[in-house]
Design goal:
- By secondary structure, the chain is of the alpha+beta class.
- It folds into two domains: 169 residues, FAD/NAD(P)-binding domain; 145 residues, 2-Layer Sandwich (D-Amino Acid Oxidase, Chain A, domain 2), CATH 3.30.9.
- The chain contains nine helices and 20 strands.
- The strands form four sheets. Strands 1, 2, 9, 10, 11, 12, 19 and 20 form an eight-stranded mixed sheet that branches. Strands 13, 15, 16, 17 and 18 form a five-stranded antiparallel sheet that branches. Strands 6-7-5-14 form a four-stranded mixed sheet.
- Strand 15 and strand 16 form a beta hairpin.
- Helix 1 runs parallel beside helix 5.
- The longest helix is centred in the N-terminal third of the chain and has 19 residues.
- The radius of gyration is 21 Å and the shape is globular.
- The mean pLDDT is 96.
């Protein structure tokens, strides 16, 4: 039976970042590490269906994991992108307010300062019209360190660098059960490549559940885990619409966030090629379906025209969607990342991630460093 020191379940951005940071650490760089994923490649689900924004760490509760890891992760991410010559642009972001929303903008600035994001700047009147002539807003907060990047290239670099450090990647591998075996884990998996399914079992000393939307399902398959420690999954879908032609904006444009921070509103972002896209919205769903209802265009237009009155219906088209692995339901207050070790679930050597929605992409390298510390 194959034996590894560490098994990471899930090859999304968090699984890849954890593997990379472990493989670079002085305490784990010589250990055998395997990443398994049921898909045919890395980053196929949530990690490839997002806005590709490098967040500054503005909105999150003070001293929360989201705030701490976003601020630290932003710095590490920019350093990584620069070091390995990966595509990114520090576009800056405008958080905009209409006339009746100015107080909310001041509250956002206060929250940012509490999170040690101290470079925000108010823009109003003529200056705002000068920097974004197509924008309708009374005032805005400029976040100069917000940016965009190619998330696929980033994930590819993490996997490539981890592989150079000896990490093994096993796609087409779905875990069926994880048993305990005197200080180690016995993993029963199914290999399914080109409809040729076969069983595969291996052992590992430490196990990390980075399975995203499948994290709760996997947690229930791990022997010894306290079922009460597994938070409920509330999948929340977000659709994106592309806007063809020349972009109307130079910055990313974000309205005031939705109540309880369910989402950040239908905002305007750019991809690395300069294409404008609007979204995502927020819809809690029972099934994982990535189809987009084209009739949503009216809803999107109404939201967009609050800050972009000249938006043309004919240039707006359905693009793609993603599903957030939320652990709070509709109307509930926002929650933090959940990173559980044995003190929470009762199984030594096991680390589990739940609710790893935005800003997990930005925070990924900082989260990887945190796992290194937990395993030490």
């Amino acid at each position: 039976m194959d034996k590894f020191d560490i098994c990471i379940a899930g090859a999304g951005v968090l699984g890849l970042a954890v593997a990379y940071q472990l493989s670079c650490s002085s305490t784990h760089k010589n250990k055998s590490i395997v990443i398994v994923d049921k898909e045919n490649s890395f980053g196929q689900i949530t990690s490839s269906r997002n806005s590709e924004v490098i967040h500054a760490g503005i909105y999150y509760a003070s001293n929360s994991l989201k705030a701490l890891f976003c601020v630290a992760g932003k710095r590490l991410l920019y350093e990584h992108l620069e070091k390995f010559n990966l595509p990114y642009k520090k576009t800056g972001k405008l958080i905009i307010a209409q006339e009746n929303e100015i107080d909310a903008l001041y509250n956002i600035e206060k929250k940012a300062i509490e999170n040690h994001v101290t470079d925000l700047r108010f823009i109003t009147g003529g200056e705002l019209r000068k920097v974004e002539p197509n924008l309708k807003a009374t005032a805005a907060l400029l976040s100069p360190t917000t940016g965009i990047f190619d998330s696929h290239a980033y994930m590819q670099s993490l996997l490539h660098l981890a592989a150079q450090n000896g990490v093994t990647f096993s796609p087409y591998t779905e875990i069926r059960a994880v048993g305990l075996n005197t200080g180690s884990f016995k993993v029963a998996a199914s290999l399914n490549h080109k409809e040729n399914e076969q069983s595969y079992e291996f052992e590992c000393d430490q196990f990390i559940n980075c399975a995203g939307l499948d994290a709760q399902k996997l947690a229930r398959q791990i022997e010894g885990v306290k079922k009460s420690s597994i938070p409920e999954l509330h999948p929340c879908k977000g659709d994106y619409f592309a806007y063809t032609g020349v972009s109307p904006f130079h910055h990313l444009i974000y309205p005031i966030p939705e109540k309880n921070h369910t989402g950040l509103g239908i905002h305007s972002t750019l991809d690395i090629g300069g294409q404008t896209r609007f979204g995502p919205d927020t819809t809690y769903v029972d099934k994982l379906n990535y189809d987009i209802n084209p009739n949503k265009k009216v809803k999107f237009l109404n939201a967009i025209r609050r800050y972009f009155p000249a938006a043309e219906e004919g240039r707006l088209h359905p693009a793609y969607s993603g599903i957030r692995p939320k652990i709070v339901g509709p109307g509930e207050a926002a929650d933090d990342f959940k990173i559980h070790d044995a003190q929470v679930h009762g199984v030594p050597g096991l680390i589990q991630f739940f609710g790893m929605e935005s800003p997990a992409l930005t925070a990924s390298l900082a989260i990887g460093n945190h796992v290194v510390k937990l395993l030490n």
